[in-house]
Amino acid sequence: MKKTLIFSFILFLSSILFSQTLESVCSSLAEHPNTTGDFIQTKTILTNGRKLKSNGKFILSTLGILWQTEKPFPSSLILTEDSMIQIAANGNKSVMSGKDNQIFANISDTLRSVFNGDAKKLQENFKCNFSYDKAGLWKVELTPKDSTIAAVMSTLILSGNYKGADGSDKISEATLNSLEMIEASGNTITYEFSNQKYPKELSADEKQIFVIE
Amino acid sequence: MKNKFLSLNKALQTVSQKKFLAAWFIYHIVFLAVFIFSLIAFRNQIQIDSDLFNLVPKSISMDSVKKADEKMMAVTSQNVFVLVANDDFAEAKRVAEAIYGELKDSRNFESLSLYSDVGAMGEITDFLYKYRWNLIDEKTADKILNDESGLAAQDFALEALSKAYGGFTMLPLDNLDSDPFLLTEYNLQNYLLALQNAGTAMSVKDGVLASHFEGKWYVMIRGVLSTRGSKLASKDNAITEIYSACNSLEAQSAGTSFVYSGTPFHSHESSTAASREISVIATVSMLVVIILLIFIFRSVRPLAFSVASILISIGTAVIATLCVFHKMHVITLVFGTSLIGSCIDYSLHYFTHWAGNKELKSGMEIRNHIFSGLLMAIISTSICFAILLFAPFTILKQMSFFCLTGLISSFLSTIAIYPYIKLPENRGNVRFADAFGKMISKVEQKWVGRIVIGVLFTAAILSIIIFHKNVRIKNNLLTLYDMHGRLLEDEITASKVIEYTPGGWYIVSGSTEEEALENEEKLRSSFERAVNNEVGYVSTSDFVPSKRAQEKSRAAYKKLLELAEYQFYALDYEPDEARALSNHLYSEYEAAEGEYVSFEAGNVPDFITSAISSAWLGKVGEEYFTVLLPTRVTDYTTYRSLVENNENAFFISKSQDISADLDQLTAMVLKFFVVAYILMFIMLRFFYTWKQSLKIISVPLLIILVVVAIFAACKINMEFFSVTGLILVFGLGLDYIIYMMENEKKSHGAAASDTSGASGTSCKTSTLEPFATMVSFVTTIISFGALALSSFKPVHLIGLSIFIGLFTAYISSFFYGRAGSAGEIKESKVNE
Q1: Who contacts B266 (Cβ-Cβ below 8 Å, separation ≥6)?
Q2: Which of B162, B397, B577, B827 is deepest in the core (most CB within 10 A)?
Q3: Pick from B118, B166, B173: which is nearest to A69 by CB?
Q4: Could you tell me the sign of the dihedral formed by the alpha carbons of B750, B752, B758, B762, in that order?
Q5: Distance (Å) from the C-alpha of residue B484 to the closest C-alpha of chain A?
Q6: Does the interface predicted TM-score (ipTM) exceed 0.95?
Q7: What residues of chain B lie within 8 A of the CB of A102, using their CB?
Q8: pTM for the full model?
């Protein structure tokens, strides 16, 4: 009985600790209203072992998220609170409104909570498995709670660096360095981020990207 | 002429009582026997119908289209939606799952669904992959085929590369080797777009259909009622089961509420209300009858026999209607309760003489005394009801058949059974009869009657002139059923949450499946142009294109294949590999020649069949039908104009079409009225003098004038149901003037033959008939007055017009009687 009580207490303590550290990472990431940078995307197809590599630029901001693939074929993905816009290399634009379609609203909401480091939303939508080490690396594995999203994406793994790893469990200046999306089919998409910058304000052109006409 | 009636009357009066009794037995036993036979032969068809849609006439259009429309209505009218609402999605889903668990095995539902099977995604992608070259939408295919430079095809290929290298694809890239243009992804996007355009704001969330609206989550349970479950007259029907399941869970789950939507909920509500109304109307009418009979006759025997006669009449009417129509609408039963008022007329005439007329020494003599009046009354009433049997509307036929068979039963009971009832010992003891006699003696002056009748005519005509702008035949289906209370609130919430309010649809036909689909595709493109792509719709060809469109898609794909090798290079394949794969693609494409997606081929997957269940009607009769269902109607004129000169497409808007049909029916019923009027006059002329016939036939005219005048003054349109009420008044209202006329004749005869100076007794007995008429008027007006209080607009309108009409009929009959009888009796006395 005594052992059970001690074990429960440890579990309780670790869950508080875990929750604090995830929130610390998220709040550290969210400290920056805007993040810009470069990414390298690798899509790995399990059935034929092929890899499709591309690279481009990204913007994470309170206005929305821009995913701008530059090479080998340009395209853009813009996520705002209400819409998901895809612009192909030929300039064809397809807009999916969250108002019209709850699925896209859910996906958009989920993706934005990942990139914006919204811990509350992350915990609402995912089972979170957080870990970090004293070398300054953190990692969180997210498993979707929503069976509809899980049918497409089985796990999301986010990882990055942080400072303040002095054993005091105080995480600060966290950065998001990579993201791996494991699809239900087993295929993976990995993103590696570099050249992250944290401008206080976006330029007028950048802001214009998120204005949906 | 008069002799013919007298001889017929005398001939019937000489018929022995046993023969009448035999007629009574034969009439009732025949219906009972046929009913028992029908119960066995049409076991599953004999039922009480409470479907709201059957209350109004079916849209009058081409037979084949009508059948297709009925098929569609049969599907859509059995759909129910329950939205489980809670601030917390998880709780709303939990409660929805609990309800689903409770109801899913019920035999009351043909299907019940909560989960939107995410496993079906595999089935969808397999299908879209297999027929990828058949399913390129027509616009894109046209663009690729019509561009000789090949730029459109290159554009398509480039877009696929952007997706492959871009950040987001809906499907995994597993089939890149055989689908380098990502056609499966492209087709899926189009399907999802079609589903999105098809209306509802509900989307899949955590495996169920849900929507977030004004801070609440709504989880949807959809059901289709089975034949068993849709029998709303039975206690354990589907709707009762849903309410029971939801009510118990509503109490257990804090913050959870339910929104009910679908026709069956309204049918259930109206059916329950109808049952309540039947109880109220029947109870009130019976109570009035009981009190009146006990009070007036001071004996329970008239009461017991009258009630028995009424019950036998209603029972006979019910089984006769079920024998002939197999289904009886609950509204027929509501309306049929008014039979009480008519049936009691015959009983009251008999028992008034039974208790009060000492001159008649036996039951047979009473029968003979009232026979001519009752016979004329039943003939005139039967003519009116019989004419309604020709109306092209089942409910009207049912009502008239119900009343006709019920009245004949009551008439037979009066002349065949009542004469066997022993006469009371203390006769001449009818309460109020003397007081009524004194009252009518005060208005015996000819001028009183003439003034009252004159005033009625003048006032009615003046009112019609003043309010002539309000006199119009106009029906509006939407005003016939008033949604109220929770159901109204629920429908408002449901329409906001689901965002699906179709007001009309196109039914598209073709002699083959292919032709129907091609016709629909043509209509789709003209519809999209007309609404500027701003209104979504459900259509079959969005999911199952015609072969013509699929051929076009294949041709476009063939053009894309020319770019396949480069596409593989661009996807980072080695040159040799790219060439080999490209060749393989071409041979795969060739091998699939002649393969099409079609219902005929049986390769349309279940998820598509389910998605377009309200659109694809299939073969109905000799033709194939499909439905293009816009999510809303923005402009009825524009929508109709799209198919004006198209013999293969029809726009159907239930509310508008049925209202227009009701207008036509109203005009038709008015024509019936004219026919009944002429027939009645011929019949009257057969039995009465010119003067008497004109006097009698002027009563229906006055009834119409007064009803129209009052409706116009109160700004009530002459709707179908009020006009139907008028026809019934015509039959019932004529009874009064006929009784009065028959009484006049008898008084006249009695006064002429009274040489013994006992005229006091004759005059006293001559007031018994008007007294019986007055009592029967009171009972009838009470039962129809109760109908006017009904919450059903159709019943209310019928009741109101009958109430006003009967009142007019009685008042005019009463004063017509006074205007003629006294003077004529006096005249004959002087001559003697």
Answers
A1: B52, B481, B483, B487
A2: B162
A3: B166
A4: positive
A5: 30
A6: no
A7: 201-205, 210-212
A8: 0.62
